[in-house]
Write a structure and sequence with these properties.
Blueprint (H helix, E strand, L loop, with lengths): L1 E4 L5 E4 L3 H27 L3 H5 L1 H12 L11 H29 L7 H17 L2 H12 L3 H25 L3 H9 L4 H32 L10 H10 L3 H29 L1
Length: about 270
Amino acid sequence: MAVSTDKSGQKVWRLSDRNAQLARWFAWFVAVAVIMYCWQTISEQTTWFFVMDAPNIAGDIASRAMPPKWPYINELWEPLWDTINIATIGTLLSLFLAVPVAFLAARNTTPHKYLCRWPALLIIVSSRSINSLIWALLLVAIIGPGIFAGTIAIALRSIGFCAKLLYEAIEEIDEKQVEAIKATGASPWQVMAYGIVPQIMPSFAGITVFRWDINIRESTVLGLVGAGGIGLQMQASLNVLAWPQVSLILLVIFAAVILSEMVSAKVRGAII
């Protein structure tokens, strides 16, 4: 609120002064201009005929995809199992690297602010900034298609997520417990084992289960780029326009994600 006086000397309350109002209106003008420019760019690069015809195409595909080809489900059990393995093993591999990175990144446990913490933060940012599908594309080109590429892609993507949440949990521990352990003459490793680790174990378990749940969903699409799993069956069915098979694969993926969400919720509820 801003206060000014009129000609009679009485106080007049205004929501903000003139400069603030002008700045606010200028900000709105810039935002509208940017939105209009982006919309114009999108419009120029969009074939609106196909957009207008999209409902008819979607209806045609839906009619071809129903009913699902239920006998084809026998071909999906192994790829589905591969997908679960990719998510599980990838999550475990990421934890082996995320834990030391988290301790190096936390302010209260890093040995050196510049030599250790900043490289650890760089690893976290690098891992989180690249999607698992991009990691899979790179790894398929480097080590070839298959489950191994998908597993490594999930692990590389998960390091930053797990390390970030874990180092934040480390920084929020109760320092009084750590000081009490130090007062007994404990070594740095004993301080970590008895003063820090017990405090972050619930967070660590919750982060692990939560990331595993996310990785189940992400691993279902890695097969689209040749990284194994049920996505590979999806790509094969799309290539031959086998829409009944595609609809069945989508139902199986949906059921797998719902089941993993239920398991994750139960485990997190038991931990918390």
